[in-house]
Design brief:
This protein is mainly alpha-helical and about 350 residues long. It has helices at about 75-80, 85-90, 95-115, 130-140, 150-180, 185-195, 205-210, 215-225, 260, 305-325, and strands at about 1-5, 235, 240-245, 245-250, 255, 325, 355-360. Helix 5 packs across helix 8 and helix 6 runs antiparallel to helix 8. Bound molecules: protoporphyrin IX containing FE.
Amino acid sequence: MLVPKFNRSLNLGLPKLNEDRSGNIVHAGHAVFRWFAVGLDGDSGFPTSFQSEPSSVEPVEHKRGVKPLVLVNNNLAEDYFPFMGWIDKLTGMMQRLQNNFQEFDRFYQELINEHLDPNRTKSELPQPEDIIDILLQIRKDRGFKVDLTLDHIKAVLMNVFVAGTDTRAATVVWAMTYLMKNPRAMKKVQQEIRSLIGGNKGFVNEDDVQELHYLKAVVKETMRLQPTVPLLVPRETIEKCVIDGYEIPAKTLVFVNAWAIGRDPEAWENPEEFYPERFVDSFIDFKGQHFELIPFGAGRRICPGLNMGIATVDLALANLLYKFDWEMPPGMKSQDLDFDVLPGITMHKKNALSLLAKYHE
Ligand code: HEM
């Protein structure tokens, strides 16, 4: 039986919350993620910059007067080989991690202080209230007991912002890349959206998305080929087991390769082909019940943000496709697009996806 090896469900930067059962600090979450969000900046719901390479994007200025947060994307050797932590010290990665943590900690503390400020005027309150208000209220209701500390609240925020932002942004970029490579699918999905929404409404909302079956198939097909967390959360066997004749001892670290599973010729016809139609009228879903498609993982540690993740990917992609016609920049052809990947826990496109957006009248 496989069990999660690490308690990574909470903040990467809050070591106390990342302790394993033996009380050791677990470093599985050491990878420091990039900050890049579709629709994070601005009210329109559209990305302010459509690039897949975050390092080439200006850091997102949050409007709170503190230094902008710049997240670096790097993996620690220790993430993969726990005995190789010394390399991270030598390369300075550990120090960068610590610095990053401190910046984040300050940022979240400032947000919390703002929410705790009794002088916060009514007009500044988000509508109706935001996640920080709710968490602080729960804490207050519990009489400030130690079981919900400010560190826990920071951890939840970190999770929502990072686990949920990076993955969604990457998925939208991969979907656009596949669609640019496959004009037939691009045309079909745009037709579906535009014929449903028409010209007057001007945007796609959450209810509309439920009618967009081909769009949903496009997203599934993208996640089959390019799951953004290809190796899921590491697991550890708690007892000896035999799989396919291989004997696996207890306490073995196991990585489940969702990327390879999505391309397994025994599970998929023409697995390398981008063919969203395979999901139209298919019962296969990514909710952890069909093991041939597990971009959100499966079992007890399945992604808890699955529904939110899909809802926002569908919505962002649908609006991008509804509002704009997409072309390659001058001098480039869709054949030039590649699927090279940056190393990392989250699978990002290595070379920036630069496209020309033409407003669709
Ligand atoms: C397209 C979007 C997303 C993808 C592809 C994705 C994918 C994943 C995957 C593969 C895992 C590991 C599951 C496993 O090992 O079984 C995971 C875990 C997690 N995800 Fe997501 N995720 C997405 C969006 C989100 C969002 C929006 C949130 C929060 C708002 C979120 C929060 C988390 C958390 C907290 C975990 C750790 C769960 C645990 O270890 O118990 N994710 N995600």
